[in-house]
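Q: Predict the bound structure with pyridoxal-5'-phosphate.
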Amino acid sequence: MNHDFQEGLNFAKELDKLDKLHYLRERFHLNKGEIYMDGNSLGLSSVDAEESLLAAVQDWRREAIKIWGVDEGRYFNFSKIIALKLKDLIKADPNEIIVMGSITSNLHQALTTFYKPTKERYKIIIDELNFPTDIYAVKSIIELKGQNAEDTLVKVKSRDGRTILEEDIIALMKEDVSLILLPSVLYRSAQLLDMELITKEAHKLGILIGWDLAHSIGVIPHNFKKIAPDFAVWCSYKYLNAGPGATAGMYINKRHFDKSAGLKGWFGNKDETQFLMSHNFDQDQDANGWLLGTHNIFSMAPLDGVLNIFNEVGIEQVRSKSLHITAYLMYLIDTKLSKYGFSIGNPREDHRRGGHISLEHDEAYRISLALRDSNVIPDYREPNVLRLAPVALYVSYEEVYLLVETLEKIVLDRVYEKYSLDRVTVL
Ligand SMILES: Cc1ncc(COP(=O)(O)O)c(C=O)c1O
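A: Predicted complex:
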């Protein structure tokens, strides 16, 4: 990372003029006067997502039950249609991708499929900084198999409380490990793990590995043809901007297509025999065999629409701006904020960081409340982290500059002191 950034608002405005993605701001619904830095939690609504959702509502109104046959079965095949638009984000074959459920439910689907413990090989590697739902899903499968969590779970320890070292993960890979589940990007510190190296090392020992792409899908390009993990899951409401609770996604590498889906449902049946209503499950021969029930059209339609934006600009360009605008934010933090007790908790190297900046401060909680009252929407995570995501598709350099100015004012004037330290749930 070597950028010649300069101080001052005019420089930010110059950067906006040079930004090839700046025009996309008009496609997103930004509140006037508000700076939105929380796209790592929930992405913004867009014209594209909204139009697609409204079209689906109108199709339902007009067609009723015939909606499933609209445009040669577009909605009946909605997962396959959206997979065609997702494939370039992770460089996978479209039939390795399905669109359904949530990260949590898709993890259950993956774990019931892939976790087949034996006496010799039964351990599961996770990391101690992972998001709770991933751990809950892993503990569920351990319980379901009648195993003991203490004996089965191998937790990679963090040396600094923020990041996990690849070498520490690899050191835990042994012949008794059955499966590894890790996040591509850690949700608090934004650390991007070396997925290719870790996957390669796991496979050398015959260990299956799955990735949670919650904080990388839509902001970091993946090459699953090269990395070839066993499975991956992701949500669509963060950097993909498909709306609160939008339908999630799942990748199953084609070498597993002959496996029996852990959880079975009639949408996982082959199309040709689905409506024969047989009680014998006739599993589809690709990732579609892992589908469960009827597609939730209104949670998928916004995703279908917003993916047009990604296909229009390409994920590489999104990553390139994301790296640049987050580097600019780090530059401003270093030059303007470090003297006020702020420090950067995410790795600084481009190949080790995701789409948000993890800004630490002892008073981060109260500062996050003060930011909200100053029309800046941040994200706060215990114990002391402001997660700030200048999302490439809709955040401007000028807004990043104004964010830092607002932060400076809040600490300089001690504005945060008027807020209570008692935690109210900040979503
Ligand atoms: C890493 C990670 N996994 C999972 C989730 C949430 O899972 P779900 O989409 O099932 O609510 C989040 C939510 O922020 C997350 O950050």
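A: The mean pLDDT is 96.
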